[in-house]
Design brief:
Layout lengths: L6 H19 L1 H15 L20 E6 L2 E8 L11 H11 L8 H10 L8 E8 L2 E9 L10 H5 L1 H4 L6 E9 L5 E7 L6 H9 L7 H8 L19 E8 L3 E10 H4 L3 H15 L4 H6 L13 E9 L3 E7 L7
Antiparallel strand pairs: 1-2, 1-10, 2-3, 3-4, 4-5, 5-6, 6-7, 7-8, 8-9, 9-10
Helix pairs in contact: 1-2
């Protein structure tokens, strides 16, 4: 008799498999990952808890992010069960931080996150970001910007003054990010249309003094084979595009990210995996951990579901990719 696994069982198996792989790769980081996920998921008392998250296409409460510019382990977590109101997610993350015995001073950005979400209708609320490096762990908060939120009251004036002075009706602010105890602010925007030009990108980069890096950004984007190739050198392929700025006050030490859903831009999980591994070799990045975690979907040339988003990141002195992955079980 053949038994069909339920979605929540697949999610749990995928997460358990990933914990074992990370622990095998680095025992200390593996132990930290297990400690944090155990505490984050301890309140998951229903099957729906493992499939309701807006983090990714599978609904899993855990998503890894692989970065060609660093071998640090990065991941984002859903904190709190489905019944929890999205407006309570920020406070639930703070409860988790207390359990982890982490103390910090709230930044101005964190306080603004709380103010921005008060008395608003939210879809997902907030997520918890973790980064494990050599001998240190960093935490981040990601907060949803309500559809009626007015980020220009504070954030744009302080962090993106040049962007604020322009007409930006074609993009919608959707999320804020902040590393705890840091002044750095990340502001994410979704484009309200499915096309973007090289000239658009050059202008977006100019707001933070990075317009001279436009060609480097385009080389990153075009290093992947698109799902539908185009001979137009000005327009990028149509996709669900967005962009983000990571800046200190007055747009200092800026990083710019152009992001898109992998399915609309590149196709199946296996195809995305193959290209990412090939480009990682070209970039000289150790992709061993990603390769092992994503191995079960290596043959998914047309099927997709476990990759979520790809970001092309540019700063004054660095460039690279971010690729997010919901951990698949051994046989998805």
């Amino acid at each position: 008799m053949i038994y069909q696994l339920q979605d929540h069982q697949l999610q749990q198996l995928g997460i358990e498999r990933s914990l074992g792989i990370v622990e095998k790769d680095d025992a200390f980081i593996g132990a930290e990952l297990k400690k944090i996920t155990d505490k984050a998921f301890q309140c998951f008392d229903t099957n729906d808890s493992w499939t309701y998250s807006f983090l990714n296409r599978t609904g899993a409460p855990l998503e890894y992010s692989f970065n060609t510019m660093s071998n640090d382990l990065r991941y984002t977590l859903e904190v709190g069960k489905p019944q929890l109101s999205p407006t309570s997610k920020l406070s639930r993350i703070e409860d988790l931080l207390e359990q982890l015995e982490f103390s910090w001073s709230k930044s101005e950005v964190e306080l603004y996150m709380e103010k921005l979400q008060q008395y608003q209708r939210l879809e997902w609320g907030a997520w918890f970001g973790v980064r494990h490096g050599k001998g240190k762990t960093e935490f981040k908060k990601y907060a949803e910007i309500p559809s009626l939120g007015k980020v220009n009251d504070f954030l744009l004036k302080k962090y993106l003054p040049e962007f604020l002075r322009s007409e930006q009706s074609l993009a919608t602010p959707v999320m804020l990010g902040n590393k705890l105890s840091s002044e750095r602010c990340e502001i994410y925007f979704d484009l309200n249309h499915r096309s973007i030009t090289v000239s658009d990108l050059r202008q977006h980069l100019a707001y933070v003094g990075l317009e001279h890096r436009t060609e480097v950004l385009m080389e990153l984007v075009k290093s992947f084979l698109f799902r539908k190739e185009s001979e137009d050198t000005e327009y990028l392929p149509e996709a669900q595009w967005g962009f983000s700025y990571s800046v200190l006050p007055d747009s200092k030490h800026a990083a710019f990210s152009l992001y898109a859903m992998t399915t609309g831009l590149y196709g199946g999980d296996g195809f995305v995996r193959q290209q990412f591994l090939e480009n990682s070799l070209t970039q000289g990045w150790d992709a061993k951990l990603y390769a092992e975690l994503s191995a079960p979907i290596g043959r998914w040339g047309l099927r997709s579901g476990y990759h979520n988003m790809i970001s092309f990141v540019i700063s004054e002195h660095d460039s690279g990719y971010h690729l997010s992955l919901s951990p698949p079980p051994s046989q998805p």
